[in-house]
Specification:
globular; alpha/beta; 17% strand; Rossmann fold; seven-stranded mixed β-sheet; 231 residues; single chain
């Protein structure tokens, strides 16, 4: 093979790799399945299936008191882990302020998502739902950044979306905005009906975790447990 032909092949390979979806940090349960973190996700998956899914509970909002707690890490890995064992799962990025799910799965930034559906009656659920992002895993990214995410999540279209997802999937997971700066997560948890609190060791204050737990319960979201994230 001539040097020019070899260089052309390398260039074509690089261009193909650049176009392919790139999961930048997660899901670790796929990229490092033998790790301690992946094993912890599988243990959490077992509890969620046994105590939540098998009891007919089809929704779960993942909430955290502050940024940097690893809520998106837990949400994306848990969703992937559930799909791995054949549980029909949908993951919705409800963090409309600093979304992270699209980056995790290598989705383009300009792809329409939740905020676009909520803001535009001309956009349908099928326009934002990515079926089989992985086998048995569907994803709805956050979409375009908007000035009024709280108002969008409070509208009837969000409830309509959740109702459909609950009918079509065995479990719907909702990644949410940190609760210390806004009430978006409380709205999502209220609609979902069930919540899982995510905190990080040596990062979140115990008082903040207790406060968020009390807020979730007061907002009629059943708290199913707390994850202490050490990743």
């Amino acid at each position: 093979m001539t040097p020019s032909a070899s260089a052309a092949r390398r260039k074509a390979k690089d261009e193909t790799a650049a176009r392919a979806p790139q999961a930048t940090r997660f899901p670790m349960i796929l990229t490092a399945p033998a790790s301690i973190e992946a094993e912890a996700i599988r243990a959490l998956r077992t509890r969620i299936v046994a105590q939540h899914v098998q009891n007919g509970r089809r929704s779960l909002a993942l909430c955290t008191p502050a940024a940097g707690s690893g809520c998106t890490f837990v949400a994306t890995n848990l969703a992937t882990g559930l799909a791995q064992i054949g549980v029909r799962t949908v993951l919705v990025d409800c963090d409309l302020r600093a979304p992270g799910v699209a980056d995790v799965f290598g989705l383009p930034d300009d792809r329409p998502g939740l905020s676009d559906y909520l803001a535009d009656p001309g956009i349908e659920i099928d326009d934002i739902l990515i079926e089989n992002a992985l086998p048995d895993l569907a994803i709805i990214p956050a979409g375009s950044l908007r000035a009024t995410p709280q108002e969008l999540l409070s509208g009837a279209r969000f409830q309509t979306l959740v109702n459909r997802l609950l009918r079509e999937h065995e479990i719907s997971l909702f990644d949410t905005t940190p609760a210390n700066g806004c009430t978006d997560a409380l709205r999502v948890a209220n609609v979902a009906g069930y919540s899982l609190l995510v905190s990080r060791k040596h990062h979140n204050f115990l008082g903040d975790v207790k406060h968020l737990s009390a807020l979730l319960r007061a907002d009629r979201s059943q708290l199913v447990g707390t994850v202490l994230n050490d990743h």
